[in-house]
Design goal:
36% of the residues lie in helices and 21% in strands. It has eight helices and nine strands. It has helices at 10-18, 42-46, 55-58, 74-89, 113-128, 140-152, 175-182, 189-196, and strands spanning 2-7, 27-30, 37-40, 68-71, 95-99, 102-106, 132-137, 167-172, 210-215. It has a four-stranded antiparallel β-sheet with strand order 5-6-1-7. Strands 3-2-4 form a three-stranded mixed β-sheet. Helix 4 (74-89) runs antiparallel to helix 5 (113-128). The protein is elongated, with a radius of gyration of 18 Å. The N and C termini lie close together (12 Å). The protein binds magnesium ion. Residues 6-7, 10, 101 line the site of magnesium ion.
Amino acid sequence: MFGLIDGNSFYCSCERAFDPKLRNKPLIVLSNNDGCAIARTPEAKKLGVKMGAPWHLIKDKPEMKTVVWRSSNYELYGDMSRRMYQVLEDIFPAVEPYSIDEMFLDFRGLTDAYARSHVARDQVRKIAKIPTCVGIGHTKTIAKLANAIAKDEPKFLPKPGEKHVTALFIEVDDFEDVLERLKGYPITMEERTTFYGTREIGVNEPGGHAVVFAKHTGA
Ligand SMILES: [Mg+2]
C-alpha cells in the first residue's frame, strides 16, 4: 500500500501560515511578475478564479473585489516543503518527494498505516502549518487518484482499521480540476478506463457534476 500526501492550495497555505489575517479570505498566489493565478483557496475558487487566469484581465470584475493576492515566493514554499518532509520522516519509514507539495508514503510492512496517516495530517497541520489530504491505494497511481478525490472530500479518507481501499465512489464538483491534477501522471489507458469508466464520466453534464469511479481490480 502507498499513500500520497498533498498540501491543499499549497502556495496559499504557505502564505496563510505566516499571515493569519489571510485565513478564511479568498486568496490567490500569482505567477512571476504577478501574471496569472497559480494557487487558489477554496474561497477564491468559489468566486470563479480559474487556474492560470491572468489577473489583470479579471481583477476589476465586481466579484473579485474581496480577493486578496500575493506574489509567489518560491523560497518560502521550498522551505515549507522541507518542513513537511521532516514531519513525515518522523512518522513513516520511507517518504518520497514527488513535487513541492506531494510526497509518496511507503506503507509496505506497516500494520498501522491508516492511523499514521491521520497522525501525519494532524502533525503537518500543527508543525508545518499546512492542511493536507492523504490518498491511499494499492499502487502509487491509485494513491494519487484517491488523493485528488480526498482533497475535495476529506471525509472519504479511509478510517483507522479499514483493511483495503479497493473502490472509491464519489461525486465531485470540479471534475476538470481532478483531471487537471492527474495530468502528466503515468496512468495507462487501461487504468484510466478502470478508474473513470466511460459511463461514469459526466464531464459535460450540466452543472458540472461528475461521478468518479475508482476501482482497483488487479491483485
Ligand atoms: Mg497540492
